[in-house]
Each structure stands twice: as structure tokens, then as C-alpha cells.
Specification:
about 80 residues; single chain; rod-shaped; mainly alpha; about 0% strand
Amino acid sequence: MLDIAWPELVVIGAVALVAIGPKDLPKAMYVMGKWAGKLRAFAHDMHRAMEQVSYEAEIAEKQKQQPPEPPPPEKPHDPAAS
């Protein structure tokens, strides 16, 4: 993901504690968590949409490469049947 190690998280937490303050830090973490969840959901939806577009393009390409099917043979005309 972002490759953040534990020591880096401790430094980020300490800076956030000093910058935001201990009183507002839980609320800020909650808001950041909600935004992170929305971002993950958006990324997941985009990934699924790109896979769908890729699948549809692959199907269309396969259909272009296939030769058209010949028309079915016509039945011979039987004059006795009329």
C-alpha cells in the first residue's frame, strides 16, 4: 500500500497529537477513517469498472476476429407439396 513502517507511524501520530491536540485527535482520526473507507470503495469500484470495460473489449475483439456464419442452406422446393 503506502509502505509505512511502525516508526514512521509513531512519528506521524506524535506530530498529529501536537498539531491537532489530544481533545480533537479522536474526531480527526474518525473523519480520516471515513474518508479512507470512501477512497477504498471508490478505488474498488473503479477497478471493477475497468475490468468490465476490458472484458467487453476482449469479447468485441474476439467477435471481430471470427468469420461470419454462413447462411443456413435452403430446403429444395418440392412441387408435389404445393
